Amino acid sequence: MPTVAPVQEPLLLSVVIPVHNEADNVLPLLAEIRTALAETGDYEVIFVDDCSDDGTAGRLALERGIAASGSGAAVRVLRHASRSGQSTAVWTGVRAARGVWIATLDGDGQNDPADIPNLLNRAFADGGPELVGGLRRKRRDVWSKRVATKIANGLRQKVLSDGCIDTGCGIKVFRRDAFLALPFFGAMHRFLPALFQIHGYRVDYVEVNHRPRRRGVSKYDNLGRAVIGIVDLLGVLWLKRRTRLPAAIIEDGIEQAH
Fold it and tell me: 210: which DSSP letter?
């Protein structure tokens, strides 16, 4: 008879980290996550390697073996066979996740894992939202990147009015089922607050720490991000205008929650 795989119980949290050529960052980041979530309960860490060629995969494979032996939280490594981008890496990780809640972090070490419990506390509060985004108190990037981000955030705010003044912050906590109900497209990770709101979900924000990059180099240039970002912004505006949700759904006289 064929072997039937056991049904895996859901976890409270999956931490999803997209990485590309971050060999020097992945293990220090994992150690920080374990420290930050020591009191969180059952969780897993999912690295999505977006076709790195610098040894990232090898370092993660070694750590995954250590975790599998019973040392620390489960560590899973998913690898793209071709470069697919950060949004696709996040989507890959969320689809594979066992957590009811997802926490995302950038793989460059600039997001502080110690902020995850604060975002979770806001999400778990009475009437808490389906997404809690981080707002970086003080950017630790070069001035050109800070200026470009400020301009992009101002433009997006005028067009979408989503209330998010720092959409580029990589640390977020959100419900897995809500994320998977959204339409997928490249660069969607930069518009998650607006997308959640467009589809009827609640959004809130918490101030978080931001750190300078200590290892590795940035994978993005400001001009390339600006050109692509304008196209994506127009696409999200189209979605906002075309999405119509009912005020309520009633079945047999009973109003169903949206």
Answer: B
Instruction: For residue 234, give the 3-state DSSP assignment.
Output: helix
What are the tokens at 131?
Answer: 């997404």
Sign of the C-alpha dihedral computed for residues 67, 70, 72 and 76 taken in this order: positive
CA distance 115 to 258: 30
Return the exposure string of 89-112: e unless at least 16 CB atoms fall within 10 Å of the residue's CB, then b.
Answer: bbbbbbeebbbebbbbbbbbbbbb
For 33, residues 6+ apart whose C-beta sits below 8 A from its C-beta are: 15, 45, 105, 113, 116
pLDDT digits (tens, 9 = 90+) for 196-222: 998 999 999 999 998 888 876 665 544
Q: 196 or 190: whose pLDDT is higher?
A: 196
Rg (CA), the chain: 19
- How many residues in the chain? 258
